[in-house]
Amino acid sequence: xxxxxxxxxxxxxxxxxxxxxxxxxxxxxxxxxxxxxxxxxxxxxxxxxxxxxxxxxxxxxxxxxxxxxxxxxxxxxxxxxxxxxxxxxxxxxxxxxxxxxxxxxxxxxxxxxxxxxxxxxxxxxxxxxxxxxxxxxxxxxxxxxxxxxxxxxxxxxxxxxxxxxxxxxxxxxxxxxxxxxxxxxxxxxxxxxxxxxxxxxxxxxxxxxxxxxxxxxxxxxxxxxxxxxxxxxxxxxxxxxxxxxxxxxxxxxxxxxxx
Length: 259
Ligand code: BTN
Known about the structure:
Shape: globular
Oligomer: single chain
Order of helices and strands: HEHEEHEEEEHHHEEEEE
Number of strands: 12
Radius of gyration: 18 Å
Bound molecules: biotin
Helix content: 25-40%
Distance between the termini: 37 Å
Number of helices: 6
């Protein structure tokens, strides 16, 4: 994650958002975060290395010390259940990460900054490369938002043909913890808007979507569906007009764009 000393001020700024756990090696930051639920306080778990990092559908998640690998432990506000659904928080986390990336890579020379985009439900893409993935899970009264970002890698394993790192796109290295701080600012200010059901958040999520108005295939555990992605609703669900003409709602699934 970070080599050498980490400025204490940066750590203090991050710790304003929750109890900070900076770890060397863990199985998965999501599992570590869940192990803290009995403490009943929001937490941020950051690890240099994961031995069993998980992606969606129990896939393995690649990360190394050049990644930003972290999980947020949250306790849903019972009065605002809609804002704390896994589907909504996955979208909010994706948006917050897009904004954080943009904030960190504003180019002083004013050359166009490649815009980070969202591929529903959980991928952040820049120039069609997946630079980050989000895994939001609920267990008991805790909700964990786990995020892996490829930050400073000059190369990624050859089998990850779809993946890219921020360095490979923006050609600038970045302290992953600075990106984390930026993410936390965007995430928690967005969460306030989500709690108030402010439509602005959803409008930006839709505007950054790479699949809206495109033909897609959605694979769920049960079957495949094809059609046109016509909306992401205010609960984070994808609305598909299927090829047979009916409207279907999805809270999760694996999406592939059809040409
Ligand atoms: C995906 O794209 O399938 C989601 C990947 C989520 C990976 C992150 S890395 C931090 C956290 N800990 C895990 O075990 N997984 C998430």
